[in-house]
């Protein structure tokens, strides 16, 4: 239970810190009065600077159109920018160690005011996704990733797709609720490779039978 509550609080953190634009209060974030109230209400602490109150273009557009369809030209702009920014593995290798990926998927610390920036961030995947069948506590905000590699295979297009999802999910869904792990510098290239291995390695708990729909 402690674990579970910890994940929930980290989910909130991720939403506020990494996504900003989707938090309910951010809906009117472009309004100068709201900006002033936000600036008055928060103080910079540790690595959590007040720069987090500033929305980028994607966050501004997605806040403005929250609950409504984003106009095609703006959706295309977000998708094009997100796609153009993806950096694929420099050595062409997508996979690290699934054991490292498991730890990252289960760890929600990082980017909070009280976290040591010298310690690697977690990915907190379980806050939103079901993954390995053996893990009982997971969020349901996002689709299940159970048996992901087993069901999708590991062709080059699939690996490119999954890497891009991890790097910047907005390349596929303009107002995605998934953190931009690569683009926002939440996870390093080596960590992303470990997460890829956790998703795709046949030995990984994710690809053991039992949880797929
Ligand atoms: C804050 C919630 C959240 C977190 C944390 C999160 N995701 Fe997601 N993810 C989503 C949502 C929502 C989708 C569905 C597509 C969308 O809305 O963009 C998604 C989609 C995906 C997809 C594409 C699924 C498909 O059908 O191909 C993959 C792969 C994925 N996530 C992997 C991960 C991994 C690995 C982590 C941890 C490093 C993670 N996600 C963390 C919310 C999240």
Describe the 3D structure.
- The protein has helices at 2-19, 32-41, 57-64, 72-84, 98-106, 148-152, 156-167, 189-200.
- Mean pLDDT is 87; it is low at 1-24.
- Helix 5 packs across helix 8 (189-200).
- With 213 residues, it is mainly α.
- The chain is globular, with a radius of gyration of 17 Å.
- The chain has one domain (2-207): Cytochrome c-like domain (Cytochrome Bc1 Complex, Chain D, domain 2).
- The structure holds heme C.
- Residues 11, 14, 105, 123-125, 127-129, 141-143, 145, 162, 165-166, 169, 173, 176-179, 181, 195, 199 line the site of heme C.
Write the layout of secondary structure elements.
Elements: H1 2-19, H2 32-41, H3 57-64, H4 72-84, H5 98-106, H6 148-152, H7 156-167, H8 189-200
Q: Number of helical runs?
A: 8
Q: How large is the radius of gyration? A: 17 Å
What is the chain-wise order of helices and strands? HHHHHHHH
Distance between the termini: 25 Å
Unreliable spans are 1-24
Number of domains: 1
CATH class: Mainly Alpha
**Strand segment tally:** 0
Largest sheet: number of strands, sense, barrel closure: none
Q: Tell me, what's the shape?
A: globular
The CATH superfamily is known as Cytochrome c-like domain
Architecture, according to CATH? Orthogonal Bundle
Structural class per helix/strand content? Answer: mainly alpha
Strand content: under 5%
Average pLDDT taken over every residue: 87
Bound molecules: heme C
Enter the CATH topology name: Cytochrome Bc1 Complex, Chain D, domain 2
Helix content: 40-55%
């Amino acid at each position: 239970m402690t674990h579970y509550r910890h994940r929930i609080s980290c989910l909130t953190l991720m939403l506020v810190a990494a996504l900003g634009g989707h938090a309910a209060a951010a809906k009117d974030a472009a309004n100068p009065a709201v900006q002033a109230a936000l600036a008055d209400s928060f103080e910079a602490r540790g690595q959590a600077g007040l720069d987090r109150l500033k929305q980028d273009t994607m966050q501004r557009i997605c806040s403005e159109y929250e609950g409504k369809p984003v106009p095609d030209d703006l959706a295309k702009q977000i998708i094009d920018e997100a796609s153009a920014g993806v950096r694929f593995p420099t050595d062409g290798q997508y996979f690290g160690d699934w054991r490292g990926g498991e730890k990252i998927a289960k760890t929600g610390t990082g980017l909070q005011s009280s976290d040591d920036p010298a310690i690697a961030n977690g990915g907190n995947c379980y806050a939103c996704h079901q993954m390995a069948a053996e893990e009982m506590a997971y969020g349901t905000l996002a689709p299940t990733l159970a048996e992901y590699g087993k069901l999708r295979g590991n062709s080059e297009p699939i690996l490119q797709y999954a890497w891009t999802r991890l790097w910047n999910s907005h390349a596929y869904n303009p107002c995605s609720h998934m953190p931009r792990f690569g683009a926002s510098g939440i996870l390093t290239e080596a960590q992303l490779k470990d997460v890829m291995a956790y998703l795709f390695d046949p030995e990984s708990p994710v690809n053991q039978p039992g949880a797929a729909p």
